[in-house]
Design a protein that fits this description.
about 150 residues; mainly beta; six-stranded mixed sheet; 1 helix; about 5% helix
């Protein structure tokens, strides 16, 4: 099965309400483990990983792997913050559906990852102190360099 390299960059300040530490933040896998990103500044973290990919009946890429969640037609990643008590303080759902077969082919041919960036400098919480997570739009593009 083919694979494709991805690089996700989180540029943000995190949840409004959270008591976790550095090991309680990351990309969530199917076993509820969090892959920590590489901190590149106070508000930027980089996550490099690989996903397996196959071609769907309509020519669209279908992603597989430890970090893929959702149905084959609606795959996504979870960026998660866990509290010290072990429950999720906040999770962002990051769709993979806007990655096309052309994106995948370019990344594979060039040997550079597809890059997605999420900027989140104005986190929100409800009046009762519950962080607002949910679906966040991410544009995936070919990296300029490795």
């Amino acid at each position: 099965m083919d694979s494709v390299a991805l690089r996700f960059i989180y540029d943000g300040v995190g949840p409004v309400v959270w008591n976790g530490g550095p090991t309680d933040f990351g990309l969530q896998d199917k076993n509820d483990l969090l892959m920590q990103g590489k901190k590149i500044s106070d508000h930027e973290f980089v996550f490099d990983f690989q996903l397996q990919v196959k071609t769907g009946k309509e020519g669209q890429p279908i992603f597989l792997g430890d970090f893929c969640h959702g149905s084959p037609k609606d795959r996504f990643l979870y960026l998660s913050w866990r509290s010290l008590q072990g429950h999720y303080a906040q999770r962002f759902l990051l769709p993979l559906t806007n990655i096309t077969s052309a994106h995948v082919a370019l990344a594979q041919e060039s040997g550079v990852p597809l890059v997605g960036v999420l900027r989140d400098h104005q986190p929100k919480a409800t009046s009762t102190g519950v962080n607002i997570g949910g679906r966040r739009s991410v544009e995936w593009t070919l990296a300029v360099g490795k």
